[in-house]
Amino acid sequence: MSTLNLQLLTIPGNYKKGTLFHGPIAWVGLKSYAGIELPIGSGKKKGQFHTISPQCVVVTEIEYEIDGLIRELEMIRKQARSFFKREQAKETSQIEKRSK
Fold this sequence. Notes:
Blueprint: E1 6-11, E2 25-30, E3 34-40, E4 45-51, H1 59-99
Antiparallel strand pairs: 1-2, 3-4
């Protein structure tokens, strides 16, 4: 299942001898958002906000959107676990090769 609003962004680790070593890196990124302008504080100033859901006018709508974001985050959690597990295996393999 693909996510609509969020995504896992990754950089694999570099374990090769003679290169700059670094472990794997990951972020949760925004795929899409909308920009809206809303009053701040007393309402004299306006601020720019990025939203990751459509406008909701009743609690059931916002609950539906929140549930969807939670599902996306759970999917990203699984993807991140898989990414870091693969990276750990790759690092272990490279360390074993260097020690031979």
